[in-house]
From TrEMBL:
UniProt-listed PROSITE patterns: POLYPRENYL_SYNTHASE_1 (PS00723)
Family: Belongs to the FPP/GGPP synthase family.
The protein, known as: Geranylgeranyl diphosphate synthase, type II
Cofactor names: Mg(2+)
Domain of life per record: Bacteria
SUPFAM superfamilies, sorted: Terpenoid synthases
GO biological processes: isoprenoid biosynthetic process
One of the Pfam families matching this protein, by short name: polyprenyl_synt
UniProt KW keywords: Magnesium, Metal-binding, Transferase
One function term, GO molecular function aspect: prenyltransferase activity
Amino acid sequence: MSSPYPSMIDDLRRQFLDRLAATFSDREPRGLYAPIDYILDLGGKRVRPLVALLAARMFGDEDLNKSMPVALAVEVFHNFTLLHDDIMDDSPLRRGQMTVHEKWDINTGILSGDLMLIQAYQYLCECPNKAALPEMLCTFNRVATGVCEGQQYDVDFEARQDVTIGEYLKMIELKTAVLLGGALELGALAAGAKKEDADHLYAFGRLTGLAFQLQDDLLDTFGDSKVTGKRTGNDIIRNKKTFLFLKALELLGKEDKDELNAWFADSPADPANKVIRVTDMMARAGIPQAVAELRDQYQADAYAHLDAAGGDPGVKAVLRALAESLLQRES
């Protein structure tokens, strides 16, 4: 029997993109809404809305009527955070295209982003399951607060030299993982799932998000740029204190540790030698294996929560396959 994974995911993605395309295209003033259309049209994996729809389908939302507003809410909120992150980081590109504040200006980016946050709440309020709305709003508030806290920790860590592994993992949990967990929890609640089941799905998503970010960090340093489509070693060039860097400090001898700190205190005009040397030190310290071990532990814990949740086992299998594709990716 062939797996239902590709066809179900493709169908859900198509339905979601059809709905998303009609979101802001006819609204005025265009100076406010065109930037929102632009960032939403830049693409991406659309993982968060997909898992929200799958979580709801696990609990009987076959026509997506109950969960489509949730999918729209989490995707619009996610892109709102990207829009404002790009302004904070002064990033010129997003997914290979000009960022909103570069294409328009900073004021437009701020205002359009603000509206996206408001619109995310509006979508959530349009969920037909009104009995679940208070719990869903509490969940959304908790997740949104966590994302902002994670972003602030990330900013703070740039100026700190004493970041711990535990602090880094907490930062990526807040900045990345809680939104994935929240999308699953919201989808389940919208479909009328029990709180216990929604909690298991949140934990599944949170742990999967942690594993996903560790895999992303690993690919940034040790991935093949021809496969990933990104410059290898970007985190090293930017002196990002990722798990790889912090674990290397824990495992390296004093001489290598001093050299690693020296590299991360410098930003040479030509970073090629820095990337080569730091990557070599990390490889010798066994960092790829250490990352893979922690990633796989998070992954195993995530699947234990998925197994503990109720719902349609066939849809659950699709959700597991989607997570597997994210965690084992090479790009």
